[in-house]
Each structure stands twice: as structure tokens, then as C-alpha cells.
């Protein structure tokens, strides 16, 4: 954790509680910090698994902090205050704020100003701050990652440090989702003690801990792995977003994560979530690409989709982009059905497009991302 954060902060091992992945860590914190019916504020769009991880067994609520594309879905003090006031009006007690940094699904990082504003907000309201930092080592471009732990070291925050809790895991940064290794790092003694007692319900096996400890003790390997991972993610993101841009698909300017947040609003029949779901079913069933609709992330605007690009080889990505190109060309010409000549021309345009794409794509070797044990879910194997 210190290495990923540029050795700018130090972590006390006594404040670490092991957990069966970030899923268990989130649930444990929810049990520790809130009672059934109470709520955490969560900026939208947010990871759909939060609804399961934080709510199902704890009985707590997630109250949305609505962020919009007009300012690239940035979190502002105004949006935080607005969400807090609406929760109060609904007679919902707010116990904390959850931040996902870097963001899933946006693929963006929070800057120091935003983190300080969030810290100021929770101090003023005397509520907790949970920072989910499981994508911290996936940052592949500037601006760099800033952990809430850095903000916690500032003198202005020292009196309220016990309100800060960090969730981390190895699933994304080291590609170990199946090992289920997560942690809670809390600056609050009572939370550490309570979480440690509750950890019996989601232990990380001794064998797994020994294996991971042995691997992480190899500083040279870890440093090379993280460096190579960042390079591959940067290249894959560049190639994929450039491929989308070739057919006019815009995406949010991200610099972290294993995915991008693409804008398909112009392909909607109308600006509604019903139209978004219709488009999603079309992409799944006809185009046979596995993407996630913005509605599943509680996005406030229809037409946004998350697409993962890191867990496939180069050839699979090429096929995925080819399908996207073909679909967009056909979709944007639906008002006037293509003639046979136009269809052949579109096929030729796609072919030539990928001939140019191959000029700047990664080397032909089949590089699989180290970030997932799953097999190429973007391109579905359905026929």
C-alpha cells in the first residue's frame, strides 16, 4: 500500500484488519458504522456491487450524490450538501460518505482539492468517510493517484482522523480476484477492534496469506509488475478509445482502472433509460458485446455505458472494436436502409479502419492483462 502511494504515507500494521476481499471489508464497515435504516452518501455513477455489499445483510441505505456529465461527473461541495439536505428532508440519518478513488466506472481519480472538500464536509457533519481505493495501482497517466491517507496526515485533519476508513484489496491491482484478499485500514480504534472480532466471518486463509506475503516480499517483482501493468493499461486504453473515436463514440477522459465510460447517447431512440435498456439488449443480443448500462451504476443521465478493455488479448479487442464499428455504421444509417453497395462499402471502411488500427496497436503477441482471471467477457462466445 505504501509503495503504490509513492511512499508518501506510512501505514500502521496494527490498524489493518484482513477480510475476504473488498466485498467483505465494505460489509464489515457498514455493520460497524451504521444501524439498519441509516444511510451512506454515494456519488453517482457508482459500482453496482455496493448495493449488494453494503445493504443486503446490514439493512442500511445508499443515498445518491448526483453527479453530471456537464462537469465530467466531478464531486463538488454543492452536490454533497444537496444530497445531505435531501436525506434530512426524507428523515434519513446519514452516517457517512463513500468515495471510490479511482472510480469504477468512470476510470478517473480524485484530486487533492476534491478530497479536502470531502474531508471538510464529513468533519462539519461529523459523519464517517469510507474510501474505496482498490484501483489505486491501475493509474496509468497523470494526474497521479492521491490517497485519502495523504489528506489524513495534514494538520487540519488530525482531530478528525478517526472518521477515516480505507478499503483495499489485491483483486484489481495485482489481478488476484479469486484469492479474496482485502483489508480494512481504519484510523478509529473502536472500528478496528469491532472489525477484527467480526473478521471471523470472512477470514483469509493462512495458506493464502503466506503465499501473498511471500510474493509481496519480492520488491523487484512487485515494482516491475506494477510498472508493466501501468504501461499495458495505458496502451490498451489509448488503442481502445481511439478505436471508439473512429466512429464518433466519445468517452470520458480517464487515466485509471480497467474500463472506460463511453457515451452512446446519440444511438438512443430517445433520451430515456427505457431507450438505454433497449440499446443495451441490442448490443448484448445482436452485436454480442458484454457492456454495462449506465442505469446499473445509478447514472443520472441515460446513454452512458461502461466497457472493460483490460481482460482480453489484442485479437479479441480487435474483434470487439470491429463489431462496434459495424454496429455504429449500421445504427446511424437505420433511417435509410443500406443498399448492397453501401453495405459493402461499410465493410470496406471497417477493414481499412482496422488496417490503420493495426499500425498503432500493441505488438502482435497475445498479451493478456494481469488484472483478471476471467476470459474475455467483452466479446461473447454466443453464435
From TrEMBL:
Cofactor field: pyridoxal 5'-phosphate
Pathway this chain belongs to: Alkene biosynthesis; ethylene biosynthesis via S-adenosyl-L-methionine; ethylene from S-adenosyl-L-methionine: step 1/2
Enzyme Commission identifier(s): 4.4.1.14
SUPFAM superfamilies: PLP-dependent transferases
UniProt protein name: 1-aminocyclopropane-1-carboxylate synthase
GO-annotated molecular function: 1-aminocyclopropane-1-carboxylate synthase activity; pyridoxal phosphate binding; transaminase activity
Coiled-coil zones: 70-100
Alphabetic keyword roster: Coiled coil, Ethylene biosynthesis, Lyase, Pyridoxal phosphate, S-adenosyl-L-methionine
Residue ranges occupied by any Aminotransferase class I/classII large domain in the UniProt entry: 5-324
Species of provenance: Olea europaea subsp. europaea
Catalytic reactions on record: S-adenosyl-L-methionine = 1-aminocyclopropane-1-carboxylate + S-methyl-5'-thioadenosine + H(+)
Amino acid at each position: 500500500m505504501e509503495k503504490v502511494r509513492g511512499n508518501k504515507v506510512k501505514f500502521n500494521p496494527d490498524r489493518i484488519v484482513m477480510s475476504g476481499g473488498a466485498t467483505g471489508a465494505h460489509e464489515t464497515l457498514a455493520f460497524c458504522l451504521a444501524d439498519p435504516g441509516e444511510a451512506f452518501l454515494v456519488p453517482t455513477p457508482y459500482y453496482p456491487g455496493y448495493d449488494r455489499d453494503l445493504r443486503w445483510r446490514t439493512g442500511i441505505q445508499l443515498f445518491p450524490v448526483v453527479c453530471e456529465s456537464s462537469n465530467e461527473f466531478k464531486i463538488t461541495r454543492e452536490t454533497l450538501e444537496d444530497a445531505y439536505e435531501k436525506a434530512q428532508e426524507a428523515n434519513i440519518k446519514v452516517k457517512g460518505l463513500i468515495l471510490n478513488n479511482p472510480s469504477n466506472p468512470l476510470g478517473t481519480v480524485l484530486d487533492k482539492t476534491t478530497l479536502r472538500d470531502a474531508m471538510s464536509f464529513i468533519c462539519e457533519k461529523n459523519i464517517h468517510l469510507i474510501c474505496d481505493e482498490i484501483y489505486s495501482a491501475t493509474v496509468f497517466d497523470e494526474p497521479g493517484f492521491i490517497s485519502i491517507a495523504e489528506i489524513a496526515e495534514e494538520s487540519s485533519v488530525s482531530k478528525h482522523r478517526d472518521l477515516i476508513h480505507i478499503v483495499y484489496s489485491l483483486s484489481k491491482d495485482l489481478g488476484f480476484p479469486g484469492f479474496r484478499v482485502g483489508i480494512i485500514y481504519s484510523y478509529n480504534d473502536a472500528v478496528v477492534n469491532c472489525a477484527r472480532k467480526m473478521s471471523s466471518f470472512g477470514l483469509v486463509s493462512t495458506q493464502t496469506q503466506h503465499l501473498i506475503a511471500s510474493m509481496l516480499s519480492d520488491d523487484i517483482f512487485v515494482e516491475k509488475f506494477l510498472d508493466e501493468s501501468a504501461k499495458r493499461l495505458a496502451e490498451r486504453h489509448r488503442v481502445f478509445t481511439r478505436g471508439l473515436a473512429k466512429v464518433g463514440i466519445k468517452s470520458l477522459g480517464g487515466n485509471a482502472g480497467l474500463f472506460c465510460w463511453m457515451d452512446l447517447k446519440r444511438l438512443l431512440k430517445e433520451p430515456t433509460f427505457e431507450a438505454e435498456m433497449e440499446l443495451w439488449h441490442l448490443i448484448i443480443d445482436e452485436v454480442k458485446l458484454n457492456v454495462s448500462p449506465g442505469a446499473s451504476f445509478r447514472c443520472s443521465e441515460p446513454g452512458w455505458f461502461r466497457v472493460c478493455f483490460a481482460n482480453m488479448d489484442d485479437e479479441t479487442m480487435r474483434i470487439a472494436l470491429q463489431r462496434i464499428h459495424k454496429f455504429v455504421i449500421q445504427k446511424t444509417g437505420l433511417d435509410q436502409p443500406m443498399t448492397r453497395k453501401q453495405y459493402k462499402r461499410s465493410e470496406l471502411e471497417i477493414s481499412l479502419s482496422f488496417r490503420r488500427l493495426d499500425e498503432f496497436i500493441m505488438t502482435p503477441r497475445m498479451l493478456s492483462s494481469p488484472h483478471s482471471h476471467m476470459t474475455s467477457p467483452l466479446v461473447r462466445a454466443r453464435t
